[in-house]
Amino acid sequence: MKKYFSIFMVCLLSGAASTPAAAQDKKDTLEILEPIEIHATRSRIKPENQTASYSVITREDIEKKKHMQVKDILQEQLGINVVQTGPLGSSTTVFMRGTNSQSTLVMIDGVQVKSNSVGSLSFANIQMDNIERIEILRGPQSTLWGADAVGGVINIVTRKGTGKPTHTLSFEGGSFETFKETLTSSGSHENMDYSFSVSNTDSEGFSAFNERRGGTENDGYSNQTYSSRLGYNFLNDGRVEFIGRYIRARNHFDGFDPLTSTFSDTLPHRIVNETAYAALPMQKSLTEWWDLKINPNLHIDELDTTDPTFGDSFIISRTYTVDVQNNVYINEHVSTVFGFEHQATNATNNSQNFSLQNENQGYYLQTQFNWDDRFLLNIGAREDINTRFANKFTYKIEAAYRFVETGTRVRGGFATGFRAPSVNEILFPFFGNPNIQPEETESFEVGVEQKLLSDRITVAVTYFNMDLKNQIQPNPATFIAENIGRARSQGIESLVTWRILDDLDVRAAHTWNQAVDERTGTLLVRRPRHTASVTLHHNWRNLLDSLISVNYRSAMVSGTGRVGGRALVRAAMSYQLTKQLKLTARGENLLNKKYEESLFFGTAGISGYAGFEYAFD
């Protein structure tokens, strides 16, 4: 029934395009946006002067694409492959530039949010609620962020309240008995500002074990997310904030016995995941040329699993961090950022009766040189002192040159990085290896960007080459984690954006990536050679906003086999019916492609969702 409900809402949106009353309530003027500051770079350098390879997903992008979860919008980005093992709530991992899923550092408002037990973040429960933008830095970023930033950094930034307090109630429903309700509120008064959101998501889902392979039962999902950001400005340029997020998610999954290679589709396999983070960043200018920022924060993750196949488990992961950052502006050409980070981590697996604690101190220094916004040079270094592993020294050097007259920009860089093994890779029975060593990497890249037709067209191409030493990977015969020696990942990232008309634009992105085990010459698991996306977007009088996109992934190795390539077509639209009411709709996998992202696991067929957003004071 919900499928027909979604189709009805889509038709309603299409018909609403001819409603003249809405045009009287909607202003034709465009909102003037503030300049983007990329927090993941720890500096105030303008985006066009960045020497790193980066992408910024803005609030405008988030609103027009209508994705429910962060992992869906990441799948469209350069250098990223996302793998989900089933319906909503299933394990969801991100692979950047051919590195392991544990090799991408994920932060929310500067808080590192990985699970210390598995060493990575599952994006299964990260909704789009209260997000202002998503920053992506590709390539090793260990000089600023330490361990795990080998493939790159993803930093999710929460919305900051501004202006008169406003509130929004939104609803979306559709396929697989999926419903989501969200309430947001934000605003500011004198020196204080706030933003808050609460959402509830429920879905009957589909079988995690692919139905075409014999899966029969639906694996349901529920998610409650609470997000807040409170800020207070003091002494002209001082600011203190409280930023927090709490997620409680529950999902069912299908068990798998690796000894018999069979799935358990009817037994009660389920996971209850509670995760929370909190940060209290404070910043103040000490002089006209020296800014200080202190960010104490914590992240807690609890995973309660009912698994008749391997037994129940309760896993707790905690991370405590204090980061002290100094930005010094020496003169109009030279600035520097330096500081230190102290981090304590621990993970406990009560069912397997093991735990591990670790502490790390990192000291970093990075200097930027800017000559007339043409020549840009960035040099940095970092020393990490760890209680379990040998000290790690990492460094990077990047440079860029802008030919302002021709709209051309060339850049290049070299960087090193490392990833520390996770607790499971060290201690988990029949998998862990106490002698496992950290991964190390050396990477270089070169790129060129060209603007054409009065900046209406932008073409950017980047080549990267990454040499990974002591790559950590399970032995396919014994499942025990081991350092496989050397692996190499190289690729070409290409991006074209074209504003065809003032209200019509197209974006095309393609990544070619070859990530191989140098011992055997075989491709690394879950690293496809090709990923690509094309999006055509149209905005009619700031009332009707619509897009259609294609997302492609080539065949790749998955587990003990391969999964075929796939091309998914989706569409999304919204219509501002009145000043307060906006109608929304989206359709996923419109060609009803049958495919697998991970061997044996199910994926959604054609599906539709529709809803509304109601704003009020």
Automatic annotation (TrEMBL):
Compartment(s) of residence: Cell outer membrane
InterPro entries referenced in this protein's UniProt entry, alphabetically: Beta-barrel_TonB, Beta-barrel_TonB_sf, Plug_dom, Plug_dom_sf, TonB-dep_rcpt-like
Segment forming the signal sequence: 1-23
Domain TonB-dependent receptor-like beta-barrel: 193-590
Main location: membrane
Membrane topology listed for this record: Multi-pass membrane protein
Domain TonB-dependent receptor plug: 48-153
UniProt keyword annotations, A-Z: Cell outer membrane, Ion transport, Membrane, Signal, TonB box, Transmembrane, Transmembrane beta strand, Transport
Xref: SUPFAM superfamilies: Porins
Pfam families linked to this entry: Plug, TonB_dep_Rec_b-barrel
Assigned protein family: Belongs to the TonB-dependent receptor family.
Protein name: Vitamin B12 transporter BtuB
